[in-house]
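Listing S7. Sequence submitted for prediction.
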Amino acid sequence: MKKKKIRYIIAFFALVLGLALTACTYFAKNIYQKDDVAIVIDKQIKDKLIEKNKDVYGNEDQTREQTLHLKILSGKYQGKTFIEKNVYYPSQLVTQKYRAGQRVFVHFKKGNLTLVNPKRDWVLVLVLTLTIFLMILMAGKHTVALLVSMALSWIIFYAVILLDVKLNGTQIILIFGLADVVFSFVSLLIVQGLNKKMLATWLATLLGVFISFALCYVIMKLTGESEMKYETGDYATQDPRGIFLAQSMLGILGAVMDEATDIVSSLYELVQTKKDITVQQLIKSGRTMGQEIMGPLINVLVLIFIAEELPMLILYLRDNNTLGSAFGFTLSLGATQSVISAIGIVLTVVFATGCSLLFLKGKKWDWR
């Protein structure tokens, strides 16, 4: 009870500190090098219709113009007020509508002001604050290890991207394959420590990632990679096929490591509490846990993928494209990645149970 109370106190102080940092970030002015900070001082922004737009498919939109009064809060022109026109579309797909009292980034070139974008960095700090607050409440002392693991993952990922850019994507599969090995080892080592449970989880994760990836790669080669529209990948400045395969490999890792950790940890606790458990009982327990985990994990992957591509799918359908055409250009690659990850999730049930048999029992197994 005392430990729980201490956890709540630490979580409260973390929340207060985070909210204070959020406020500081919101009011920050002179810490930005490239752009200056301004505030929209209009109580009611003048907003007028320029023209109505309608394309050949019957989609309607408008072109509107805002007249903004901006007070500069930092930089060479601090304290001065500028009037700027902002043209936007209510759909706000590629343009931005500004609100009264909103803080924005602006850029000056030869005395001329240009709107950059809204100042949203404080939102990021707020989200990070709430995340850490909830992690402390749920994970307690393990929060530090989780945060360190996240930070190291970002550093490793940045280093991998720099290496890939330097090599211009020529070794992208090898690079991201090694990255999967390092990602999983570092994350599990920090969170679980170097022990049999960690090694079992790591081995199960690697088997799930590489065997499912190899299986799907062989299937793709046997089918001639038909209907794989690699050219639809966003901002593919390197080989789009290689980028797709690298994305798939990272996607498998996220799902597989989560599942392997759950199964191995549960079986570890089972072995510790029931010393006389047999092989058949452990296999049955692993299969039962896998059946309970597989469905939700696969559904989460599919829903995340659909949510990510939903705006583009709606745009394609509104432009009178057929469902098959819209699927091919917006959902085909993501659907393939989801299937690859789903196969990895299914196979990991077997690998996690097998690795538990290999690592978690100190004496000979009872095979009855």
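Caption to Listing S7: primary sequence and predicted structure tokens for the chain studied. The mean pLDDT is 85. The chain is about 60% helix and 15% strand.
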